[in-house]
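ok so I'm stuck.
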Amino acid sequence: MTRFGRAIGVLGAAVLGVVVGVLGTVAHRGHQPWGLVAALALVVSVGVLARAWRGWSAWAGYVAGLLVVVQVLARTGPGGDVLIPAGAAIGWVWMIGSAGLALLVAAVPRRVFDRTPLPPRAVPAEQ
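replied:
not stuck anymore, here's the structure
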């Protein structure tokens, strides 16, 4: 893979992280508690996708995009609006859970993402 291809992969994964962060931040409070469950499931599934797609560099881009946008959206907006209130437990679960689950994808063994075909199984001889 060329450097340009790797850079495009990292950039694409970072954009995915931003999209997941925005969708999760909006959905986690919109339909409690299922919005939070769906948002956290989305974090894991896209993290696995990024790692399987381009490896560690894309996974790192995804995590960076996700964490940055969640932290930015946790701040008070210019009009005083807050998407992740500091006193709500569901906001803390979203912030810590999204970071933790995104990092947990790093613990998935490498063989899960291996594309090498397995050798055929030996057929047991009949007796």
